[in-house]
Write a structure and sequence with these properties.
The complex is a heterotrimer of chains A (about 250), B (about 300) and C (about 325). With about 250 residues, chain A is of the alpha/beta class. Chain A has 2 domains: about 160 residues, Rossmann fold, CATH 3.40.50; about 80 residues, no CATH class. Helix content of chain A is about 40%, strand content about 25%. Chain B contains 11 helices and 4 strands, in the order ααααβββααααβααα. In chain B, helix 1 runs parallel beside helix 5, helix 2 packs antiparallel against helix 3 and helix 3 crosses helix 8. The termini of chain B are far apart. Chain C has a domain of about 210 residues. In chain C, about 70% of the residues lie in helices and about 0% in strands. The chains are: A alpha/beta (about 250), B mainly alpha (about 300), C mainly alpha (about 325). At the A-C interface, helix 2, helix 3, helix 4, helix 5 and helix 6 of A face helix 6, helix 7, helix 8 and helix 9 of C.
């Protein structure tokens, strides 16, 4: 039984079919790459899984629960977290607060406790504080904790976004082009980070990426989208040799 | 039956005046993406230009009431254009790269400045607007009185809207305006002078507001420095209702608001007149947030 | 330690209120009135700051919530025939203020729901419309005095009530915004999509902001009604809403202290200009434009955080 399975998911915007009849399974502990030319519908797949868009038809199951019709925050609570292609950090929050927001689902007190500061809240806030420091420590971000997240260097902003996603304790992490705009050494650090995350957090990862070195280097399985259709799936080697994939990337074979 | 016809005529005449003001809102929003709250007060200034200049102009040109009426309107349009461009240059231009909210508050400040400045200069009490548009009953039967001023308002508004349509869709300046409203930077790269296009938009919008003021004061001749607030708000609602940024939408929205208001006043109670336009607006926005003719822009993730 | 700070602050400000209460007889009635107006405006601006500043929902209908509260509490105390100074007047006034808050927050709920679908200017004009609708409805209700206004309200508000409620409000807001729960508001304001992706229920947060903000606007309305003793619908027009928005924007969206200071300054300013009566509103308007033109970033900086005092907050987008 896969952790996440997309059954014949199709999404249409007006007349445009962005993703068509997509079938994709992600097992617990998988690290799967989702690749394809620009405009192939990769980010749309993420948006469908996380509830930003609803599929026109098809089903999405995560841990036996149907995600179709659920809102993004509900899906986050079920255990899927994501990052964004164009970084979406909170401009007025510090790194510390960014992680804090992501830990909101760990607190059980509500609005009235928050405004009146009852003691139950203090215990929970202290626990949250510990958790934040643990997370920041693990990712080497402690020295930035009081910096505004958006004022960090680019590579660190990507890192904070991943950390924010992981703070929600996901069982599936969706990474949307994490290496975009990084230099080679940052990319190496990112690859190390991803394997570190897998080991420590034991979550499955679905990764959209254009950089083939990154994708081929870390993914166990790769699915290829072109014009919203899955044209290949398999091990990095199988995908590299697949004629459909070569055609999609390089055009008609000579 | 006659009463219904009466309401329709009144509604169209009020509605076409709202439409003229709404066009200013919608064009400025289309270009600068902010609500020019001072637009209603530019309208008020237009009325006072008419009030002070009409006696002199009719003395100057002599008997012809139509000719002097046109001159008064042109003068009001000219002065309001200057006012509109000045406001833009001094209050809005320095804030162009700043958050929208800052500009909105500034616009409210300009609006208050014009209102209270008007009270200071013109005096706070209402004044009687002179007759510069021939005012007689064209049709006068039982329950149905159609004044020539209503007819003049409808016809003038229609002519001005056609001229505006021509400018926006058939001239180079209009094409540049439309380009700027899509994307400032891209338009600038095409060699369009953004500043002059923005000024031109303010000229168009403010002169339409001035024309609307002359027509409005000819139908409702009591004018005062706060007279711009409600027509301004109604016209803004009309612009949002029709789909802000869309000039056909503004015209349609103006007519809908004008008709609804006269019907509510005529058949229900005048006290609900102001609430009803907001009520319609809220309903429309709830079911179609972009207005009747507006396009909905979804956020890209 | 840090967590006890707000409680300490609450205690201190209550004591301060008590001390000033003892000396209040020595203040001239005019200054006394200005001080109470400052207090009421601080409550209004701080409560709007929750909606506009923290949750990022641009609302132009705050005067409507204030009107709902003013009339609710006026009807309650009038029907009870409370006389000022009697022992029964204190719990009765408190009860009427709580009812004022509840009725206003029901209106907040009503306005909050469209805010779920609307953004920016559209939301601004819709909330303005709601505010006007509340006003027009009051204008047409005879038992509220319609356009003639509601007279004979007992003078129950005083300095103590107003500043006591400010202390409570600031305490609550400060706690809220420094809790993990409250950080969710800032996340919603900054980026709704990213906030929902980390499990923040954006809808719920927006509605809570409207309800909470409207509650205190309603209480401010109740305090106002029982201070001026005569209210009519034209006191709660959209110009009133503008004034409150201006206080929030000048003070810095989401800046608790900045908003309090700007509410005080912008209340005093027209009063200070009273000697040149006919020019004062013109000068007020002109100063407003000049402040907006000269201001770099916020009036006082980010939020209640010394380190951020001079940094720009990117909140107002």
């Amino acid at each position: 039984m896969p952790l996440l399975s997309l059954n014949n998911c199709t999404i249409q915007f007006g007349g445009l079919v962005a993703v068509s009849e997509l079938i994709l399974d992600v097992n617990a502990n998988d690290l799967i790459g989702l690749i394809g030319p620009n405009g192939a519908g990769k980010t749309t797949v993420f948006n469908m899984i996380t509830g930003v868009y609803q599929p026109t038809s098809g089903e999405i199951f995560f841990d036996k629960r149907n995600l179709v019709g659920k809102k993004p925050h509900q899906i986050s609570h079920i255990g899927i977290a994501r990052t964004f292609q164009n970084i979406r950090l909170f401009p007025s929050l510090t790194v510390y607060e960014t992680v804090q927001v992501a830990l909101k689902k760990n607190i059980s007190y509500g609005f009235f406790h928050a405004i009146t500061q009852f003691d139950a809240m203090h215990r929970q806030e202290n626990r949250i504080k510990e958790t934040i420091f643990e997370i920041l420590d693990f990712f080497g971000l402690t020295r930035f904790k009081d910096e505004m997240a958006t004022s960090l260097p680019y590579g660190f902003q990507r890192r904070v976004e991943i950390v924010r996603a992981l703070a929600t304790k996901p069982r599936l992490l969706l990474l949307d082009e994490p290496a975009a705009g990084m230099n080679p050494s940052e990319k190496k650090e990112l690859m190390a980070l991803i394997s570190q995350v897998r080991e420590h957090y034991k979550c499955a990862i679905l990764l959209i990426e254009h950089d083939m070195k990154v994708v081929m280097g870390i993914c166990e399985r790769i699915a290829v989208l072109d014009y919203g259709i899955k044209i290949a799936e398999g091990s990095p080697h199988e995908v590299q040799c697949n004629p459909h994939v070569i055609e999609a990337y390089l055009g008609e074979q000579v | 039956m006659n009463q219904l016809l009466q309401q329709i005529i009144n509604g169209i005449s009020l509605g076409s005046i709202y439409a003229l003001i709404a066009l200013g809102y919608t064009m400025i929003y289309g270009i600068l993406r902010f609500i020019n709250f001072a637009h209603g007060d530019v309208f008020m200034i237009g009325a006072f230009v008419g009030f002070y200049s009409a006696p002199h102009i009719s003395k100057l040109v002599g008997g012809s009431i139509i000719f002097s009426g046109i001159l008064v309107m042109l003068l009001a349009m000219l002065i309001c254009s200057l006012l509109g461009v000045t406001i833009e240059k001094f209050a809005y231009k320095p804030l162009r790269s700043r958050p929208k909210l800052t500009v909105l508050i500034t616009a409210i400040g300009v609006s208050l400045f014009l209102e209270y400045g008007g009270q200071l200069i013109f005096g706070p009490d209402p004044k009687l607007f002179p007759t510069i548009v021939p005012s007689m009953a064209v049709v006068d039967t039982q329950n149905l009185v159609i004044g020539s001023n209503s007819i003049v308002a409808i016809v003038t508004a229609a002519i001005l809207m056609l001229i505006l349509r021509f400018i926006v869709f058939n001239t180079k300046m209009g094409a540049a305006m439309r380009a700027v409203s899509y994307n400032h930077q891209a338009a600038a790269l095409m060699g369009i002078n953004i500043n002059s296009i923005i000024s031109f938009t303010f000229v168009l919008g403010s002169s339409l507001a001035a024309a609307a003021a002359i027509l409005y004061s000819s139908v409702y001749p009591s004018i005062n420095p706060l007279m711009g607030i409600f027509p301004g708000l109604k016209a803004f609602i009309a612009a949002v209702l029709g789909g802000i940024g869309n000039i056909y939408g503004a015209a349609l929205g103006g007519l809908i608001i004008g008709l609804t208001e006269t019907f509510v006043t005529g058949y229900l109670s005048p006290t609900y007149r102001d609430a009803i336009s907001f009520g319609i607006l809220i309903l429309i926005l709830l079911f179609k947030p972009s207005g009747i003719m507006g396009k909905f822009e979804a956020e890209k993730v | 330690m840090k967590c006890h700070l707000p409680k300490l602050y609450l205690l201190l400000s209550l004591i301060l209120c008590g001390i000033i209460l003892i000396f209040e007889k020595n203040i001239s009635p005019y200054y006394y009135q200005v001080i109470v107006y400052i207090g009421i405006n601080i409550i209004l601006a701080s409560s709007l700051n929750i909606i506009n500043g923290f949750a990022g929902q641009f609302s132009l209908g705050h005067a409507g919530f204030m009107a709902a509260g003013a009339y609710t509490s006026a009807v309650i105390t009038s029907s009870m025939h409370i006389s000022p100074g009697s022992l029964a007047s204190y719990p009765a006034f408190l009860f009427s203020l709580i009812c004022a808050g509840i009725i206003a927050s029901l209106f907040g709920l009503m306005v909050g729901i469209p805010s779920l679908r609307l953004k920016g200017d559209y939301l601004a004009i819709t909330t303005l419309g709601f505010g006007e609708i509340i006003r027009v409805i009051i204008q047409n209700l005879d038992f509220l005095g319609a356009a003639r206004g509601f007279t004979g309200i007992a003078k129950l508000s005083d300095f103590f009530w107003v500043f006591g409620i400010i202390s409570i409000l600031i305490f609550l807001v400060y706690n809220l915004i420094n809790s993990t729960y409250g950080k969710g508001f800032l996340a919603v304001r900054d980026d709704e999509i990213a906030a929902s992706a980390v499990g923040i229920d954006v809808t719920r947060y927006k509605v809570i902001a409207f309800v909470f903000g409207a509650f205190f606007a309603g209480i401010a309305g109740g305090l106002y009604a029982h201070f001026v003793t005569y209210i009519n619908p034209s006191q709660f027009g959209f110009l009133r809403s503008f004034e409150i928005v201006v206080m929030v924007v000048v003070g810095g969206m989401g800046n608790i202290i900045g908003v309090i200071i700007s509410a005080a300054i912008l209340t005093i300013l027209p009063e200070a200009l009273r000697s040149i009566a006919q020019y004062r509103m013109v000068i007020y308007a002109l100063l407003l434009v000049i402040i907006m033109l000269l201001r770099e970033g916020e009036f006082l900086g980010g939020r209640f955080n010394i380190k951020r005092l001079w940094k720009k907050s990117p909140a107002e987008t």
